[in-house]
Amino acid sequence: MTVLLVFGLFVVIATAHNITLLDVPQFGDPRRDVRLVCHYVSETGDPPLHSVKWYRDNNEIFRFTPGQQPPTRAFNTTTGAVGRGSCNVHSCAINVVLPKVYNTRISFTCEVSTEGPRFAVVNQTKYLTVAVTLKDGPKISTSSSGAVQVGEEVILNCSTKPSLPPPTLQWFIDETPETVDPWIMDNTEFSAPDNDGLRSSSKALRVRVDTMKPSIALRCVATQPTTPNFMTSSEVSLQVVRSPHLSMFTAAGSSSKIEAVSIAVVSCISVHMFSKYSALSEV
Ligand SMILES: *[C@@H]1O[C@H](CO)[C@@H](O)[C@H](O)[C@H]1NC(C)=O
Ligand SMILES: *[C@@H]1O[C@H](CO)[C@@H](O)[C@H](O)[C@H]1NC(C)=O
Ligand SMILES: *[C@@H]1O[C@H](CO)[C@@H](O)[C@H](O)[C@H]1NC(C)=O
Ligand SMILES: *[C@@H]1O[C@H](CO)[C@@H](O)[C@H](O)[C@H]1NC(C)=O
Prior knowledge:
There is one protein chain. This protein has helices at 2-15, 244-252, 256-261, 277-281, and strands spanning 18-23, 27-28, 34-41, 49-56, 59-64, 72-74, 86-87, 91-96, 105-114, 121-130, 139-142, 147-149, 153-159, 168-173, 176-177, 189-190, 201-208, 215-224, 230-241, 266-272. Helices cover 12% and strands 43% of the residues. The strands form four sheets. Strands 2-10-9-4-5-6 form a six-stranded mixed sheet, with no helix packed on it. Strands 12, 14, 15, 18, 19 and 20 form a six-stranded mixed sheet that branches.
């Protein structure tokens, strides 16, 4: 029994095309078409390619059959149209219109079948979430010139470009989350939606400098409530000045002199995603 099963599996693998890469972005902006590409290979001696089919949530949306006229056919579904495909014996690319329903998770499957006698079929699936994700980390602006004194109060503002769904923001002071009143779940502010429904997020932070450390690291983390969550963050560091001479300089400095000191603001931006990406891509 086991031997038969293993033998059967071997025959299928040995005569099928292999999907080498299924290019489906994890997030798709519904304001433009999304391009999906499926790459496949066959071994020398394998029967030729019979067809490549694209499925969206298990509904066939596109078919490439090189032996037929016309070789490509698109099937529009109620959830979105499919543009012209560009396919050959190595890859098949299609453009898909996404629904303007944010946070919808859509599965796309590429299925490649080989000519007879066995018509071996292989497929691969990946998921796309409809969202406008942030391309950059949030912007941090500060009331301070960058060099602060012990006892001074600094106001920072973290804000993001328009996105959908808009992120909630969280501040970290030297890697410790900002303490907020327990009854306030989240006090991120959102702008009014633009024409496409996108909103900006912002959140201010008031810090009193009471540290003896030479600097304070302030990080703002933006989390878009997508499936999976999409996170970006930015960080600034405030240099704590203890020299009386420098303090006077900072206190006295207005306009142009502050410009010179503001070079002390060290900013670094990192964009990363927390996701079960590898788990999702293996179906
Ligand atoms: C397809 O994948 C199987 C299993 O990973 C491998 O044994 C086979 O050599 C591959 N065939 C091609 C054409 O790459
Ligand atoms: C992909 O292949 C699996 C098993 O080989 C099958 O159960 C599934 O229905 C296929 N998916 C599609 C969309 O054809
Ligand atoms: C699918 O929809 C697109 C855009 O609405 C249209 O241009 C195309 O002709 C349709 N294709 C089919 C096969 O209905
Ligand atoms: C923070 O910046 C945003 C975007 O520039 C602005 O809309 C918001 O009013 C600012 N918040 C504060 C408290 O300054």
